[in-house]
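ARCHIVE CARD
CATEGORY: sequence design from structure
SOURCE FIELD: tokenized fold
FIELD CONTENT:
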């Protein structure tokens, strides 16, 4: 099993920045995708960004140009640098790791709250 622990959330003002971290431990597969999702109150969980172990990165259109995802495979860690935060970025941010080929696996963290005040 894989465990994910997120950190770095908090309360910030519009325009400020935050960096989220997610550390994976346990039986981590050799090739995987690590990423971030978020869920605002009353909304469905949505994709934010992810990065494969080979370095391929994807972003949601809503965060392109403002958020940067990075990963250190040796440290089993993924970061999300969030700049120019806006109230609509307020959500519970979840870390996810998954692998689509055998052995298929998926794990989620417990989430870290990001609140952006206007």
């Amino acid at each position: 099993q894989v465990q994910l622990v997120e950190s770095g959330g908090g309360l910030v003002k519009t325009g400020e920045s935050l960096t989220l971290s997610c550390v994976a431990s346990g039986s981590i597969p050799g090739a995987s995708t690590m990423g971030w999702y978020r869920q605002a109150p009353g909304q469905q969980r949505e994709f934010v960004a992810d990065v494969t172990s080979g370095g391929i990165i994807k972003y949601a259109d809503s965060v392109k140009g403002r958020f940067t995802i990075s990963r250190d495979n040796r440290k089993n860690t993924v970061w999300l640098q969030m700049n120019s935060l806006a109230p609509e970025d307020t959500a519970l941010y979840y870390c996810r790791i998954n692998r689509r080929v055998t052995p298929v696996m998926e794990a989620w963290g417990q989430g870290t709250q990001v609140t952006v005040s206007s």
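CARD ANNOTATION: The two ends are 40 Å apart (CA to CA). The first strand starts at residue 2 and ends at 7.
SHELF: design records, drawer C
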